[in-house]
Amino acid sequence: MNPPCYDLHTHVVPGVDDGPVTPGEALRIIEKMRNAMPKGSVVAATSHFSTNMAYLAAMSRADRSCRFAEKASDESLCVIPAGELLLGIRKSGVHELISYPGTHTVLVEFTHGLFWFSVLRRIVRLLKCGYRPLLAHAERYKWATANRLRLLAGMGAGVSMSMRSLAIPRYVENAEWIISSGMCHMVTSDCHNIRDMVLGDYARETVERLCPGGWRTLAEENPRILLEDGQLPPLGGAGRG
Ligand SMILES: [Fe+2]
To answer: How close is the Cα of 182 to the center of ligand 1, in Å?
Structure first.
């Protein structure tokens, strides 16, 4: 039997973002994950949040994630509450509500078209607050060259990619590059609905085709290190400047 794997980016909480609308849909996605992932695997429910949200609204959304995670978990699949933060420049405190449980790491995304120095400024501000970013779908940003991703990893950031990008034509090339070149610490599903890929056999085969031996690092070891609040390894790789 395969060891447990970790999917640290999913949209499975019903009625809060562009993920499932009804509780029934949400539970069907969870069931698909439970059937596809090895026993004991972990899924983080990372609904969308923004540093521009009202704090009370963020608290209420975080509370819904907690309740959903508790309800969806059993001995074969553990669902943990977290969030995906659209990182702006405003000091909001939202990151404290949605970091991965027991850690000081928060999944972050950026507005498309944001310039590199604006990205860097936002990340430095988060680091100064004592929180580490895990970059969501790094393959989607034009600024995310190999050198810049290495720089961010050296500052303490984690880099993740979304398997969902492999189904979006404009992202496929970069998604394959980021896995095959070793420029991400982990793969995630970023699953929004029942049709999206989850971290099962097909995802494993895809990762192994692009990066032989990579599944163990990208889906098992690195995400586990993150949830233990440990230090992720340096990024390797080459290409794309
Ligand atoms: Fe997402």
So the answer is: 21
